[in-house]
Amino acid sequence: MGLSTHVLDTMHGGPAAGMAVVLYVTGSGGERCLKQFVLNQDGRNPDGLLLDATQLQRGTYRLVFDVAAYFKACGVSLPEPNFLNQVSLDFGVADPKQHYHVPLLVSPWSYSTYRGS
Description:
By secondary structure, the chain is mostly beta strands. It contains 1 helix and 8 strands, in the order βββββαβββ. It has a 4-stranded mixed β-sheet, with no helix packed on it. Strands 4-3-5-6 form a 4-stranded antiparallel β-sheet. The longest helix is centred in the middle third of the chain and has 7 residues, at 67-73. It starts with a strand and ends with a strand.
């Protein structure tokens, strides 16, 4: 199945097109960057899945979303220091045969996530 993400900008009511995201694999050996990308017009990875079924393994991962840079690029006036800079989501994959979808709903002042389908 694989791993995917989708980011919605709740301040403007649409996809967070242009937001930079980094995917890491984490664990006892530290973290290792697997992929860096910029969200497309739909708020998704332009290449589709972040990891496909052959790449996704049991373990822990981190997605880092560059929230402050995205909102600044949208022309939002943020205080210095801004409330949210980067949002890091740490999550585990117990069964790599399943699909793991990690959506982010975000504004300059709040965010939420869940395991999607």
